[in-house]
Amino acid sequence: MRKIQDTDKKPILLKVSLLQPTSVTTAIAPLQPQEEKIINERERLITQVERINQMAEELEAAILELKAIANTPNTQKRYPFLMKQLCKNICQYFAVSVPWVKRKSDESFILTTRKVDLFRAEREATLLAQQLRQQTKKRLASQRHRKNKNGAEAHTKHLFKKVLVNKS
């Protein structure tokens, strides 16, 4: 502190920092143009939409994994009370949905939900089994048809040979 005396000869105490200019160590950020700011906000919005949808996909996968684990025989062996009631499962399933963000044609967004299809794998497996059975039936039918056709031709040739042999 420095003493300053006024005209009455009384000392006045003032802080030196008020009297001396100080240097600025941080610069003021320049103003961003409004257009650039809007683009950055739009990018943040799109990034957040993608993040929400990615998390929804991960959540759906975790739910389906829970169902798979609950339906394995090893899990049910650990719960002998369920063996008494074979129709009862260790886990019950109700309609399930996850949050989902949809993009509209006008580039706006809708926060909604998307249904998780818990039984899609079973339906697909059933459909595949039916297709394989049909293919097998067709293959067997064509093999039988070829056998019958070849057998009939062989039988006809055999009869024809007998007729030729008997005539000679």
List the helices and strands and how they pair.
Blueprint: E1 2-5, E2 11-14, H1 16-19, H2 34-70, H3 73-77, H4 80-84, E3 96-103, E4 109-116, H5 120-167
Antiparallel strand pairs: 1-2, 3-4
Task: Describe this protein with a few key phrases.
two-stranded antiparallel sheet, alpha+beta, 59% helix, 168 residues
Return the string of H and E elements. EEHHHHEEH
Based on helices, strands and strand pairing, what is the structural class?
A: alpha+beta
Count of individual beta strands:
4
Helical content stands at 55-70%
What's the mean pLDDT score?
77
Distance between the termini: 146 Å
Sheet with the most strands, sense and barrel status:
2 strands, antiparallel
Question: What is the overall shape?
Answer: elongated
Write down the Rg: 42 Å
- Total of helices: 5
Strands ordered across the widest β-sheet? 1-2
Sequence stretches where pLDDT stays below 50 over 5 or more residues: none
Strand content: 5-15%
Report what the structure shows.
The chain has about 170 residues and is of the alpha+beta class. Helices cover about 60% and strands about 15% of the residues. The protein is built from five helices and four strands. The strands form two sheets. The chain has a two-stranded antiparallel sheet with strand order 1-2. A two-stranded antiparallel ribbon has the order 3-4. A hairpin with a 5-residue loop joins strand 1 and strand 2.
